[in-house]
Design goal:
transmembrane helix; DUF3267; membrane; 6 helices; 2 strands
């Protein structure tokens, strides 16, 4: 073997080692990418699970407060042959997020008075309940205030209820108990205190 041959063999060996290092680096780099993507996916899943968990807790807390109101809508809707749906803390794109939402499919055959009756149902139902409780049940003074607040909250019409009562035709055209905002919905500032006062009178 000559000196030149030895140098050539050495260079060739170094070239092979360099190629091997590049190959290993490529393999190492490609192995990091899936790991990073997997970690990101796990983080997203974890955040989603956490958000779902908190939403569930919030719904459990809110449900006893808002369900009586929504159930009154649903009960009257069933009487008229509608198929009601109730959601607690529903996803909403409006300016305010409702605590609860009642809805049911309606069509052109649904009478205007039926739509309005379903919308006004909580007021009628819980004023009747307050009247019956006031007549037949003697409520302890220590719990009278919570009972008044609960029944008045359940009876009070929301802005959405009043919007539907004032514009049932739009609800029928939409095919559901959903309408655009109405100027009448601001009347809740007046109707809610009045409802609370009437409930208190009926109970005491």
């Amino acid at each position: 073997m000559t000196k030149n041959d030895s140098r050539s063999d050495t260079d060739h060996t170094r070239s092979e080692e360099h190629d091997l290092d590049l190959t290993e680096n490529i393999h190492d780099g490609s192995g990091l990418k899936p790991t990073s993507e997997s970690q990101m996916k796990n983080q997203v899943d974890s955040n989603e699970n956490s958000r779902t968990w908190w939403q569930t807790i919030a719904r459990v807390i809110v449900a006893p407060i808002v369900l009586p109101h929504e159930l009154a809508h649903a009960a009257i809707a069933v009487l008229f042959g509608l198929d009601p749906v109730i959601r607690i803390l529903p996803q909403w794109s409006g300016t305010t997020i409702p605590l609860g939402q009642f809805n049911a499919e309606i069509d052109t055959s649904t009478s205007t008075w039926v739509i309005q009756a379903v919308a006004v149902a909580p007021l009628v139902v819980y004023l009747t309940v307050a009247s019956l409780v006031g007549i037949f049940i003697s409520i302890n003074a220590t719990i009278i205030l919570p009972v008044i607040l609960l029944l008045s909250f359940s009876a009070s019409l929301s802005a959405g209820d009043i919007a539907i009562i004032s514009n049932p035709v739009e609800a029928r055209q939409a095919g559901a108990f959903v309408v655009q905002g109405s100027t009448w919905e601001n009347i809740t500032i007046i109707t809610t205190p009045i409802t609370t006062g009437v409930v208190a009178i009926l109970l005491i």
